[in-house]
Amino acid sequence: MSFQDTHIEAGTLVFTLPLSKSGTRQQKPKRCAGQPIYFGLTLNYESGPILWPWKGFLCSGVPLDAVCLLDGMTEVTVRADAVWNYDDNERRRITNFNKEYVKENACRAIKKWSREGSHPQPTIDAEDSALHIAQLKLGASCVRPEAERMAKVADEVENKPPGRSPVFP
């Protein structure tokens, strides 16, 4: 998916970001105060986490303290809007892919059938059947399990007595 499919405009830069390259004297205009900031999500279905990056127009990361949210947006509503935007675009993408996939398989089967002649019981080869319809994977279905997992992590951290780290004794 493209940047627009996974991100929404969510705020503006509060201050001009540090120079992106050493040896330069002037910041890029898109990294100056007042420029739009975008918020989105990235899903990793294999490992489960959801990344919530704040990015400038040039797709570079932006620290949260550099962002002023648009009027009416909160850290909760901006996440909900980003998930809705992602899911809406994902539905459209998967629907279009599956339509084309089914259409191509049907055309291939019809061409074979017409070459072989019309039989009352035509044989459709497995390769011409739409057996691999793409599954819809929405951000909304990942948010709650991730939130529940993180709540358990917070409980575990709070219930662990202070002391030595199990990683670095």
Can you walk me through this structure?
The chain has a four-stranded antiparallel sheet with strand order 5-2-1-6. Strands 3-4 form a two-stranded antiparallel sheet. It starts with a helix and ends in a 10-residue tail after the last helix. It is extended and about 75 Å long. The model has no long low-confidence stretch (mean pLDDT 84). A hairpin with a 6-residue loop joins strand 3 (42-43) and strand 4 (50-51). It folds into two domains: 3-18 and 31-77, no CATH class; 87-158, no CATH class. By secondary structure, the protein is an alpha+beta fold. 11% of the residues are buried. It is built from three helices and six strands; from the N terminus they run αββββββαα. Helix content is 39%, strand content 12%.
Features:
169 residues, alpha+beta, 2 domains, four-stranded antiparallel beta sheet, two-stranded antiparallel sheet, 6 strands, 39% helix
Shape label: extended
Query: Could you tell me the strand content as a percent range?
Result: 5-15%
* Unreliable segments of 5+ consecutive residues: none
Contiguous helical run count: 3
Widest sheet: strand order? 5-2-1-6
Biggest beta sheet summary: 4 strands, antiparallel
List the helices and strands and how they pair.
Layout: H1 3-6, E1 7-13, E2 36-40, E3 42-43, E4 50-51, E5 54-55, E6 67-69, H2 75-116, H3 140-159
Gist of the model:
This protein has 3 helices and 6 strands.
